[in-house]
Amino acid sequence: MKKLVVFYSLEGNTKFIAQAIAQSAGADILELRPEKEISSSGFMKYFWGGKQVLTKEKPELLPLEKNPHEYDLIFIGTPVWASTFAPPLLTFFSEEKLRDKKIALFCTYGGNAGLTLEKMEEKLVGNEIMSRIGFKEPLKNNPEECADKAKEWAGGIV
Fold it and tell me: Per-domain residue ranges for the chain?
């Protein structure tokens, strides 16, 4: 079974968890990268990120380095922005239209996960959602423990 971890990360939290999952699952990694990235520092990141979410923007992504349609099991991760997934995921979902895949969803957040995982699931109709999990600020809240939790979760799915 071919496995892939697809994720977007602005501040590194989601990337940290994605790498732990990939290591545990023996999966390839596909990082979604917008052509124009917002700044990851200062208050304006909240303004621009929130604006993108509220206006349902689909930022242009750099070409994907892997074809997700070639994989059987796909882990998909995002930071939580305005109680939902980050806009690069909206672009990914609308362009790739995954079907008949086994999917596991994860998110990283500062406040709470909101309805992020449920909203991701809505975009993935026609796939089997295996599991979902959230991580609160893993780079600040005991990174080693969060990485172990991510590895254990991924190992249980594989």
Answer: 3-157
Compute and round to an integer the Cα radius of gyration of the chain: 14
Gap between the Cα atoms of 2 and 43, Å rounded: 40
pLDDT in tens, 44-61: 555 555 556 666 778 899
pTM for the model: 0.91
104-139 pLDDT tens trace: 999 999 999 989 999 999 999 999 999 999 999 999
Provide the 10 A C-beta neighbour count for residue 134. 17
- CA gap 49, 10 in Å, rounded: 10
Please check whether the domain covering 3-157 is classified as CATH 3.40.50.360: yes
Q: How far apart are CA 113 and CA 145, in angstroms?
A: 19
Which residues is 109 bridged to in the sheet? Answer: 136
Amino acid identity of 126?
G
